[in-house]
Design goal:
Structural class: mainly alpha
Shape: globular
Radius of gyration: 22 Å
Largest sheet: none
């Protein structure tokens, strides 16, 4: 942000945080949806513009899609990177997984959008088991149509996520690789944009910074919109007295202020190493928690859901077997990385 606006880095950091706080403070979904849609659009345009200019060619791109363990270039090791390639691969896998929290928060997105029966509920309200038991086959058929809406919505979000992540990877490799640079300090984005501007014009450098800034702001908004809701619900279930004492919006804002404070503490203590922060967050959120999420979602779909719904409704809404396969694969694959690769990277 400090490269886009005439502000020092600390002021830009505060601006991003305050902007994100202002967007999510009301707890209103429509505001969040509009702002996030605009930021995602800017990110996609900026990143794809840069990636298109440094695209290595279709053959090299397809070769890169073949599963393999690449070697860390000697010039990168000389600049401080570990010779162990898994130190770079694991954060990318965690980022690609989408993160435990981000996937859980999609529930709140569905509630805010009012999909299906979520239109009858509000944040902080428990499910109505009596209503679920009384669902008829006709009700279930109606909800089945909403399931298709959710599948389409989530699939498009996943495709956009893959597209943007691939664009960032291609842009980084295409800009840094030929120059043999592995920037790790607070000037990472500025270094990339300067190199890109010197070779492909100021518009390219500007779009790169703009896309990165939009991704940063969108991520910050997502964090502040999701974690407080998740913790408010956790306290409602685990500490009922907390929920009875404070209305939902007060709970949400209390946790929002807590995350604002802790974010600033982290930024001002570890902010000089942004790459390290991104990698650490990707590993903790994307790798360590994803296997547990796959396990609990599977139990919820195949053990809890049949008990919540009437038999007629469950016969219609029964999850497809492909969901069980996908969840099992996610549990095994990411569980392997957690048990084998993460200890090897940390202690090997």
């Amino acid at each position: 942000m400090s490269e886009l606006l005439p502000l020092p880095s600390f002021a830009s950091g505060w601006l991003v945080t305050v902007l994100a706080l202002a967007v999510v403070w009301s707890g209103v979904f429509d505001v969040l949806k509009i702002v996030m849609s605009l930021l995602v659009a800017v990110t996609v345009v900026g990143v794809l513009y840069v990636a298109a200019h440094v695209f290595p060619g279709m053959s090299a791109f397809l070769v890169g899609l073949i599963p393999q363990t690449p070697e860390v270039p000697p010039w990168a090791v000389e600049q401080g990177l570990s010779p162990n390639p898994w130190r770079e691969i694991l954060p990318l896998l965690g980022w690609g997984a989408g993160g435990f929290a981000s996937q859980v928060w999609y529930t709140y997105w569905v509630m805010g959008a009012g999909y299906g029966m979520a239109a009858r509920t509000a944040y902080g309200q428990p499910a109505n088991p009596t209503l679920l038991q009384r669902l008829t086959k006709q009700d279930a058929e109606h909800l089945k149509g909403w399931c298709r809406v959710v599948y389409t919505d989530a699939s498009l979000a996943m495709i956009l996520g893959i597209l943007v992540t691939t664009g960032f990877m291609v842009a980084g490799a295409g800009v840094l690789g030929p120059r043999q640079l592995a920037p790790d300090g607070p000037d990472v984005a500025f270094t990339l944009s300067t190199i890109f501007s010197s070779r492909w014009g100021e518009i390219g450098g500007f779009l790169f910074i703009l896309g990165g800034a939009a991704a940063l702001i969108a991520t910050q908004i997502g964090q502040l919109a999701g974690w407080p809701r998740l913790l408010a619900d956790s306290f409602r279930l685990c500490i009922p007295g907390f929920a009875r004492r404070f209305p939902w919006k007060t709970q949400f804002r209390l946790f929002l202020l807590l995350f604002l404070f802790t974010n600033m503490v982290i930024v001002y203590t570890l902010g000089v190493r942004p790459v390290f922060l991104v990698q650490l967050g990707a590993i903790l959120d994307g790798l360590l928690l994803t296997p547990l999420q796959a396990l609990w979602v599977g139990l919820g779909l195949y053990l809890v859901l049949p008990k919540l719904l009437s038999k007629d409704a469950y016969d219609v809404l029964r999850p497809h077997w492909s969901f069980a396969v996908g969840l099992a694969l996610a549990f095994l694959v990411f569980g392997y990385f957690c048990i084998v690769q993460i200890p090897f990277v940390l202690f090997g």
